[in-house]
Design a protein that fits this description.
four-stranded parallel beta sheet, three-stranded parallel beta sheet, 12 helices
């Protein structure tokens, strides 16, 4: 059942079947480990605007022993964990976050990035879950000899994969911090709801709730997520997940 829910974060032309789920045929170190954002520390990884992470991703700096190949939607969380824990051995490259709406692009891009950067780093760790690739990313990582974070999608590993597998949220639509900020770019506009709001219930009619999985404690983001739930006509709830399984995955990358 968790794998079925994992299909929801996918390409825009399949949003109604996967990202917006069941709604219709035509339709995204070492040392102690800190799980929260710590004080800003000097280092090569600095906050990047969401628009850049969505459309362009993030280039690696060339510094560090371990390269993380990640989705742009995870950049803020990865950088926060790196700073909080002093993981200066980690470098980061992000693919465009919007590729969750085009998962067929993810595996070739990861394959190319591993080939390009393997010689420059001690190892490479892929910070993607399956993310709509239908097992192809896992197979590619096995073939390339690199590890990846377990789970069907970021909703699961932020919650904790074991806890998510037991959750009874089959009619829930999920948001993370990043998706709350980028909801229009990932969902509303790709579905054409900015132009045809009357289609809202066609896409979301089989949902009953919006669950905001909060990585940070930000009242403004909570208000934004609640407003999105109102716009979608769904009941709202918030779960403070923090970084979930991402913390341990990076600690052992």
């Amino acid at each position: 059942m968790a794998a079925d829910r994992g299909a929801r974060l996918v390409r825009a032309d399949r949003l109604a079947r996967q990202h917006v789920g069941p709604a219709g045929p035509d339709a995204g170190g070492g040392g102690s480990v800190a799980g929260a954002v710590g004080p800003a520390a000097p280092g090569p990884l600095t906050p990047t605007p969401d628009l850049q992470l969505t459309e362009d991703g993030l280039a690696p700096t060339g510094r560090g022993r371990v390269l993380l190949l990640a989705c742009g939607a995870l950049a803020h969380e990865i950088i926060a964990l790196r700073r909080a824990n002093g993981w200066d051995h980690l470098d980061l490259q992000c693919l465009p976050a919007i590729w969750h709406n085009h998962p067929e692009r993810i595996v070739p891009a990861i394959t190319q990035a591993v080939a390009t950067h393997r010689a420059a780093y001690d190892r490479i760790f892929v910070v993607y879950a399956d993310c709509g690739t239908g097992g192809q990313l896992h197979a590619a990582c096995d073939a390339l000899g690199v590890r990846m974070i377990p789970g069907p999608h970021c909703y699961s590993f932020f919650t904790g994969n074991d806890a998510f597998a037991q959750a009874d949220d089959m009619t829930a639509f999920y948001l993370t911090d990043f998706l709350t900020r980028q909801f229009d770019a990932f969902v509303w506009r790709p579905l054409g709801l900015d132009r045809h709001p009357e289609l809202r219930d066609t896409y979301f009619g089989n949902y009953t709730a919006l669950i905001y999985l909060a990585q940070t404690d930000d009242p403004a983001l909570t208000d934004n997520a609640r407003a999105i739930a109102d716009r979608m006509g769904l009941a709202f709830s918030r779960r403070q997940t923090g970084y979930g399984d991402l913390t341990q995955a990076l600690a052992t990358a």
